[in-house]
Amino acid sequence: MQQGKTTQFEKNFEASSARVKKRLAAYLRDPEDGKNVHAMRTSLRRLEAAFLLLPKKERKRNKKQADACKAFFRANSRVRDLDIISAKITALGGDPFVDAIAGKRKAALVHALALARSLEKNKMPLAANAIKKKKSIDGDKLAARMDKVAGRLVCAIEERLPVVVGDSSKKEELHGLRKDLKKLRYMLEILPAGRRKKYERAVAKVVVGGSNSNSGSNNVMARLKELQGTLGLVRDCDITIEYLQRVKGAGAVLQKGKDERDALYEKFAKNMMMTIMAS
């Protein structure tokens, strides 16, 4: 372990933890605000991605806090999904089917708020346990951990892409691909700029392809964000379709949702097929 000053990774990690605290306070002040619900989920995702890069001892030391964050994330995600479903159905012209969602959201929010209040009383996961002992996280250990985690994610993305591009019915695989892309992007964001290049080159070969695989950092990060966004829209359609399939009399709205989903998927599939062919 290096002695003395805090590393850039540790500073970035603590900033991520502080962001969760700030957004948690906003969430508790106004949990009815959909923006707070979304911001809370995003900040927790970023913290989770950063947490995975901590050395094993630090992950164990912070496991209780990390588990509490995950439990709250899952509960809050249910609230967020219901907000998305409500907005999508309204956009599809299905206003009469929206009222029933309010009760479901209220129940989901009660559960999420209970976990949020409990989380507020506990400390966020910290990289600073080592710092308090005047030690910093070893750069070599961080690199080795990143090699392992990023390598696993890149492999998962490479394996999922041909499957989802060739079959629009692979909903869970599409969702898994989106989560992998998001996690990888958030991990790269928290790393010091000098440590990103190695991983960005590997990622570029998969999501940018061919002669563009030497794209700069901004292009790689933008590409990850673009794919994550497109797959997010597909996922929004999928959870809305799943809900509408259980609603009596919603056939016309359901079909509109399916048509929108098909168009979004086709856009994604054509885009990725060009990337795969260029690789």
From TrEMBL:
InterPro entries, sorted: CHAD_dom, CHAD_dom_sf
| Family matches, as SMART domains | CHAD (SM00880)
List residues of the CHAD domain.
12-275
Name the UniProt record assigns to this protein: CHAD domain-containing protein
Taxonomic source organism: Candidatus Nitrososphaera evergladensis SR1
